[in-house]
Specification:
Elements: E1 6-11, H1 16-25, H2 27-30, E2 34-37, H3 39-48, E3 54-56, H4 64-73, E4 79-83, H5 93-105, E5 110-111, H6 114-127, H7 131-138
Parallel strand pairs: 1-2, 1-4, 2-3, 4-5
Helix pairs in contact: 1-3, 4-5
This protein binds 1,3-dihydroxyacetonephosphate.
Residues 10, 12, 38-41, 59-61, 64-65, 96 line the site of 1,3-dihydroxyacetonephosphate (13P).
Family: Belongs to the methylglyoxal synthase family.
Binding site for substrate: 12, 16, 38-41, 59-60, 92
Pfam family, one: MGS
Length: 139
Amino acid sequence: MSDALTIALVAHDQKKDDMVAFVRRHAPLLSRCSLVATGTTGGRIADADPALDVSRLRSGPLGGDQQIGAMIAEGAIDSLIFFVDPLTPMPHDVDVKALMRLAIVYDIPMALNAATADILLTALIAGHTPAQDTEKAHA
Ligand SMILES: O=C(CO)COP(=O)(O)O
């Protein structure tokens, strides 16, 4: 799966149900990706679909956003899906902004709500042809 897309998934507490619904809606597509998530989000995803390949980092307020930002800077993330809660003050607001900033700096496709994430994931998968799939297509 080394040529699989790596997608970072993050959701604030008030948006975690939306993330679970997103993951359930797109389980067949997401099962073809490597997933990286902040701690609590990753736990909810793993509970929702234990078959998904999801690596859990620190919880957002404890450095998880920064870990994903570092992975973006290293070129290890293909896309960021970040369900942001715009109505609740966050103790780690600077980390949230820093993560979004790095996604912009490195021109990573980023969705900040479910409607955009639906479009983004579908487009990403449609445009991604892993070597394995290419071989099958020509077999
Ligand atoms: O706080 C977050 C993003 O800013 C998400 O962190 P958790 O997934 O650990 O709740």
